[in-house]
Design brief:
The complex is a heterodimer of chains A (about 625) and B (about 525). Chain A is of the alpha/beta class and about 625 residues long. Chain A is about 45% helix and about 15% strand. Chain A is built from 25 helices and 16 strands. In chain A, the strands form three sheets. In chain A, strands 6-7-16-15-9-8-14 form a seven-stranded mixed β-sheet, with helices on both faces. In chain A, strands 2-1-3-4-5 form a five-stranded parallel β-sheet. In chain A, strands 10-11-13-12 form a four-stranded antiparallel β-sheet. In chain A, β3, α5 and β4 (about 120-130) form a beta-alpha-beta unit. In chain A, α7 packs across α25 (about 625-635). Chain A is globular. Chain B is mainly α and about 525 residues long. Classes of the chains: A alpha/beta (about 625), B mainly alpha (about 525). At the A-B interface, α1, α2, α6, β5 and α8 of A face α7, α8, α9, α11 and α13 of B. Chain B: It holds the Pfam family Vps16_C.
């Protein structure tokens, strides 16, 4: 054991403020998490076994590997399952680690009940990041409280999946906010932002857009106020030079339309077609060169099982960093350029004549090897994607989306949607289109809605009636003219409050969302990520950079955005932190409450690359796409 | 001897943590003065509590590890005087003049509070402080000299925290804390004794404050407390006035599958639509199909009888009708399939139950196995269409699919043929051509069958596209003729057709025929 543990958690989180040079990245957050985790493990003297909640294991791989856990006394690891008794092993502490969720408590109770009388080990329940009153209450109710040595929490909140992206990995937050009208996730967001500011220093300004964002900022303010009182003004983060100057908090539901549209960036398409979880995606293995698999040493290739191949998709892969933000139509060109460059480099060996030149070349060999593997990997992935994107079903779907966005049919059901239902295409895919149709047409006519509903239920089964109610409650499908659809109250009031003004045609006109002359290969506008559609959230960030939300130049469009907007100016003694004059861009954190898409992230990266003064860091409750968003509303 | 500190508070990790090795109690003589001081202070504490235990009840845990239980203090009811003299070393004084006695009385008031709270909410240390104590635990056990300074500072900070906590507890021994304070503590997962709020007025204020904060956990904690302590009618009244509180309570009941309570509360709140939705959900969760039908029927009678829910009621009634059709058809087919009476079940084995399949799947099933039954039969596809008001398009789509699988091309033609007023029959499918042709081709329709449908496509251009797709050469040739496209025809003939075949001769004949006019 090393005596490196700081005296308080606030200190162990404290910022690397000295590192004011260079880019601000989310790796600071990761470092803080690691410190927190290891300090936490150190508090249990002796050997430990961890009984993990499945999802949590995957999350924690973003923070530390098993070997590092081993170094901190973790001898064994088990999966946490309901109905199983505490696993047998010779350790001093057994930690049941799970996310804060009441249904996971059940599994802990089962395990602890199975602890034998002569068991000398100490059992601890550990909730990440908080132990809610309800979780504790349940443990108590079940009577296992007595057998537990302690109930603890490990406040790891942000998981950085990339250099500029961190999320709370909390996909349940959106359905909780929407179908439950339960605003508890906002507290989690506020606590996470608070922790973030402990690491990066207190931001000078916090901007908000939307009702959830407003409440979150308010809660954050309260939290910091209380902490300041509790600390007795001993040490405040305010006198630390902030690495992040501004925080923008945006509601996903300001713009529920964007996730429904098919993303057309490389990374976005990987997510739409294969699903990216915890920064990795699974692909059919037989499509990849056998050679790649053997080289498990390369970070990108690690085989998961026999059928699928797990590929890490992060900024550690240089080629992927370049490809991920491109419109898929530009990926082929970039890839072939890259491969050409590589072969030129390899050809250089023929020019190497002297010993020194040969040595130079040999030195570069491993690097070239990695680059070649990456090129092979992404060529295969691109081929896989292309198979889908050139299929008739995909092209028809994109065309249908275009027709909906251009408001071609607002009075009748879309013929394509009806056919998709009759053909029995996946329910979620059809639902996505219907939601789009409703949002763009500012609600569906009663007759159209009824027709859609009848056909959906006939084709997919009556059980889906409940799903439709949830989707209607979230405001994704509405009956035109009414605030809520026949007795189903909307949970996000701004959607109904906005009425006429937030209708899609008006928003489109005000923010130029649909762009016809988009250049996919060398884009000059963020709308390239959806091949001619710029998400409202991205436009808002663009206007924030230039000319600024309160500028009279954009006063008219800004009025049309549903929901509250404003800014909180923080009191700070040290004035602006790192100035632009240092040649470093200022960092702005954009936090999306309720999820963000990969295409939006790419669009924000595009804005960063075009702006001289600011650079965006992106944070969110989770990363989503249309399918995952609707599925999460569905399964309660 | 392994000893173990057992604070009442399960969350107070500092006290809960102990090392079996007993290094805690080892003499700290070899360590630096600071460490020695710290240890002395702790030993003081321990000694006093151990002395205490002698004249108090046995510790609550019957384990071979000896337990020192602080809660004994309360039972004995008095604080022994010798303790009052046990002060901390001057070294620690700077962080606050905290005495062991103070600590002890903190403990006793904890227990006292717990008794008051009837064990409802466990006293918990401040969440904000928890992280800090988590770190300090390790140091208690570590005995290396390197840690001594850390030990010292950590003990100091620990004392300070306890002192603050003590002040807090002392102040609220008899008086409930401010409502905002209680809510704040609930939010942080700290201890809060809601039972101290006795009047309805205060309770309502508590709920209002919780609602203002918008944290689901806090709201729920308060709502459940109100549910326990208020009369049912008052509680219901409150929920009626505060729909957001009601939402949280409803979600809680839903999560915990307390559906009876849930329907009751929803009905009494006048939220009939939600109550009906719950009844529907409960019915859908029923295991057997008969129970499901019964529950759904009941739901139509009760929840969905509200006139504003007419449409929803129709959906549920439709569901019932579907299930009532599926159940007898499924069971009679199962017997037929087992007895081997029906040839069809051998060719197309019935692998799954029909019950609870969607309407369109049911239609397909009926068209596959029972297409020839008269319309008044239960399993007739026409009867399904009639009862569930399926459109012509839905009907022919599924029926054609089922018939194509059985290669009943003549029946398909009959389904797709409409008779005009003048009696002339015409193939006029309501299904889009592309889908119809896909279905036929997938089931290996003959060239003649494909050609027949291709020729029914009214537009020549469209017909040509599909004919090219399905390689129907005679239709293709005819299309080129109709479109007067000689060059394309020659190109097609030379590239796609082999000489001296029937198709080639046909194309040659067309080209030679002087009746045909060409645009090129």
């Amino acid at each position: 054991m090393t005596p490196s543990a700081g005296p308080t958690s606030a200190d162990s989180l404290s910022a690397p403020s000295a590192q004011s040079s260079g880019r601000v990245t989310m790796s600071h957050m990761r470092d803080a998490n690691r410190r927190m985790l290891f300090d936490f493990l150190r508090t249990f003297d002796g050997s430990k076994a961890i009984v993990w909640d499945g999802d949590l294991t995957k999350q924690f791989t973003l923070i530390a590997g098993f070997s590092e856990l081993k170094e901190h006394g973790v001898a064994r690891m088990f999966p946490l399952k309901a109905g199983q008794a505490a696993p047998q092993c010779d350790v001093e502490h057994v930690l049941y680690m799970t996310r804060t969720s009441t249904d996971r408590v059940r599994a802990i109770i089962d395990n602890v009940r199975g602890v034998r009388q002569d068991d000398r080990r100490r059992h601890h329940a550990v909730f990440v990041p908080d132990s809610s009153t309800l979780c504790r209450h349940k443990l108590k109710e079940a009577g296992v409280h007595e057998r537990l040595e302690s109930v603890k929490e490990l406040a790891i909140r942000f998981y950085s999946t990339d250099a500029d992206v961190a999320t709370l990995l909390a996909p349940r937050s959106l359905p909780t906010l929407l179908t439950r009208a339960d605003w508890s996730p906002l507290h989690e967001v506020a606590l996470a932002l608070d922790q973030l500011e402990t690491v990066f220093g207190q931001a000078t300004r916090v901007h908000y857009m939307g009702d959830w964002a407003k409440k979150t900022v308010e809660l954050l303010g309260k939290k910091r106020e209380q902490d300041a009182i509790a600390r007795g003004h001993e040490q405040t983060t305010a006198n630390q030079i902030p690495l992040i100057d501004d925080i923008i908090v945006i509601d996903r539901w300001i713009d529920p339309l964007t996730p429904l549209i098919t993303q057309l960036t490389y990374e976005g398409l990987i997510d739409e077609l294969f699903g990216i979880r915890y920064g990795t995606a699974l692909f059919p293995k037989d499509r990849f060169f056998q050679k790649n698999q053997e080289k498990t040493s390369s970070s990108a290739a690690a085989a998961a099982d026999n059928k699928t191949k797990k590929v890490a998709l992060t900024s550690s892969d240089d080629l992927f960093t370049e490809l991920r933000n491109l419109n898929f139509n530009a990926v082929g060109l970039t890839l072939s350029k890259h491969i050409k460059y590589l072969s030129e480099q390899t050809e250089e060996r023929h020019k190497a004549i002297t010993v020194r030149e040969c040595k130079e070349f040999v030195k570069r060999l491993p690097e070239l090897e990695v680059a070649r593997d990456a090129a092979g990997l992404h060529t295969t992935i691109a081929e896989l994607i292309k198979e889908s994107t050139t299929s008739k079903s995909f092209l028809d779907t994109i065309q249908c989306e275009q027709e909906i966005l251009n408001c071609l049919e607002t009075e009748r059901p879309m013929p394509y949607i009806e056919e998709a239902i009759a053909k029995g295409e996946p329910f979620i895919k059809v639902l996505r289109l219907i939601c789009m149709h409703s949002l763009v047409s500012d609600g569906l006519k009663a007759k159209v809605l009824d027709q859609y509903r009848r056909e959906l239920l006939q084709s997919y089964g009556h059980e889906y009636a409940d799903t439709l109610v949830q989707v209607q409650r979230a405001g994704l499908i509405r009956e035109r003219g009414e605030a809520g659809s026949r007795g189903i109250p909307l949970t996000y009031l701004s959607i109904s409050r906005a009425g006429q003004t937030a209708a899609f045609p008006a928003l489109n006109k005000a923010f130029r969302l649909l762009v016809s002359d988009v250049n996919e290969k060398s884009p000059n506008d963020a709308s390239y990520v959806y091949s001619g559609y710029a998400p409202l959230t991205v436009r808002l960030c663009q206007y924030w950079l230039n000319p600024g939300w309160r500028s009279p130049a954009v006063a008219d469009p800004m009025k049309r955005v549903p929901g509250a907007t404003g800014v909180v100016q923080r009191a700070t003694d040290i004035g602006p932190g790192r100035s632009v004059a240092d040649g470093i861009k200022r960092s702005v954190l954009v936090f999306f409450i309720g999820g963000v898409t990969y295409a939006e992230i790419s669009a924000l990266r595009f804005l960063s690359s075009k702006d001289e003064n600011y650079e965006f860091l992106i944070a969110s409750t989770h990363i989503l796409n249309g399918d995952s968003m609707l599925t999460s509303l569905n399964d309660e | 001897m392994a000893r173990k500190f057992q604070f009442d508070n399960p969350d107070d990790s500092y006290w809960n943590e102990s090392s079996a090795g007993g290094s805690f109690f080892d003499d700290g003589g070899s360590a630096s003065t600071a460490q020695a001081t710290a240890r002395a202070a702790l030993n003081d504490l321990f000694d006093s509590s151990a002395a205490f235990r002698n004249n108090s009840k046995e510790g609550s845990r019957a384990e071979d590890v000896e337990t020192v239980d602080w809660s004994g203090a309360l039972v004995s009811g008095s604080i022994p005087s010798p303790l009052q003299s046990s002060r901390f070393d001057p070294h620690t004084k700077q962080s606050g003049s905290l005495s062991a006695t103070d600590l002890l009385s903190t403990a006793s008031s904890f227990s006292q509070r717990r008794n008051e709270s009837k064990g409802n909410v466990s006293p918990q240390l401040a969440r904000s402080q928890r992280a800090a104590s988590v770190i300090s635990e390790g140091s208690v056990e570590s005995s290396g000299t390197g840690f001594s300074q850390l030990d010292h500072t950590r003990l100091k900070s620990e004392h300070k925290k306890l002192q603050i906590r003590y002040e807090q507890v002392r102040q609220e021994r008899y008086h409930p804390p401010e409502i905002d304070e209680t809510i704040r503590r609930l939010l942080r997962g700290e201890s809060a004794i809601l039972e101290l709020y006795k009047t309805k007025h205060k309770k309502v204020q508590l709920l209002e404050a919780a609602l203002d904060l918008r944290d689901g956990n806090v709201i729920l904690a308060v709502v459940l407390f109100l549910k326990q302590t208020l009369a049912d009618s008052l509680f219901r009244d409150l929920l009626l006035r505060m729909p957001r509180a009601a939402n949280h309570y409803v979600a809680y009941l839903r999560d915990h599958f307390k559906f009876d309570d849930l329907s009751n509360i929803l009905f009494s709140l006048g939220r009939n639509d939600d109550a009906a939705a719950v009844e529907f959900l409960v019915a859908c969760r029923k295991q057997t199909s008969h129970a499901k039908v019964q529950s759904l029927k009941r739901a139509v009678q009760s929840g969905f009888s509200d006139p504003t829910l007419n449409q929803e009621a129709a959906i549920v009634a439709d569901y019932v009708a579907l299930l009532e059709r599926q159940i007898p058809v499924d069971s009679s087919d199962d017997t037929a399939s087992k007895q081997g009476r029906e040839q069809k079940f051998k060719v197309y084995p019935k692998t799954a139950t029909l019950v609870d399949q969607p309407t369109l799947t049911t239609l397909y099933y009926c068209a596959l196995y029972h297409f020839d039954l008269p319309q008044n039969s239960f399993a007739s596809p026409l009867a399904v269409k009639e009862q569930h008001k399926l459109t012509e398009k839905q009907y022919s789509w599924l029926v054609v699919k089922a018939l194509a699988r059985q290669k009943r091309w003549a029946d398909i033609e009959r389904v797709l043929t409409t008779k005009s007023l003048l009696g002339s029959a015409k193939i006029n499918p309501v299904i889009p051509w592309t889908h119809l042709l896909t279905i036929l081709a997938r089931h290996d329709a003959s060239h003649d069958t494909m050609a027949k449908y291709l020729r029914a496509i009214p537009s020549w251009e469209e017909r040509l596209v599909f004919a090219l797709d399905y390689k129907c050469s005679d239709v293709i040739v005819d299309c080129y003729v109709a479109l007067k496209d000689r060059q394309k025809l020659i190109e097609y003939m030379s590239t796609k057709l082999t000489a001296h075949t029937k198709e080639h001769y046909y194309a040659e004949g067309v080209l030679r025929n002087s009746m045909n006019k060409w645009k090129n």
